Amino acid sequence: MKKSTVLSRFNEYSLSKKASTRNGLLFLAAFTFLVALVFIYATRIIQDAKNTIIVVDRGSGELLKSNVTYYNKLMISLIKNHCANTAYYLNSFDRYTLDQNMAKGLFLVNRPDAQKIFKKYKDQRGYGDALELGYVYQTEMVEVLELNTDKEPYKVRFKSILQIYEDHKVITRYTIVSDGEIRRSAAQWPENQNGLYFTSYEQTYQPLKIDENE
């Protein structure tokens, strides 16, 4: 093979290789540019979605946007719901729900403080009356008295009404005032859906008069 032919073919190979490299670089640059455009577009979509998320206040039915002000409203709503659940499960029971409600209460309140409340009902024959006499203890939160959501732990004071039934008739009624500190934790379905937890909790009781017509 002639030397001129070899050189010609070598030059053709070099030019082809350079063109291939150039085309590869152009493709890589174009691909990188497209990825960047997709990333920017996706980021804008996510940001727009965050700005248009709608949350419904379970208490008032009000539509809440996901910004700081409305986040605080949402947190207040969740805390109120947590307080209501705590008051109910720690202080509501009958012969059929006693063990179940005690177990659920431990998902909402730290164990030592919950055990103090359980001990009080045991020592004062609350559990005994429910199991042996069929009494029904029913508690409902009625009002949040104080609430600070500036920072964790969230400090809260709320009032509940405990009614004790015998044969479907109210025989005793108490006001329960609860004080506690709440922190956020991992949600535990279905016992603690809000992911809130009382790290400290105590409650006091005040007897209420019974209307004879009830």
From TrEMBL:
Transmembrane annotation, as ranges: 24-42
Keywords: Membrane, Transmembrane, Transmembrane helix
The name this protein goes by in its record: Conjugative transposon TraK protein
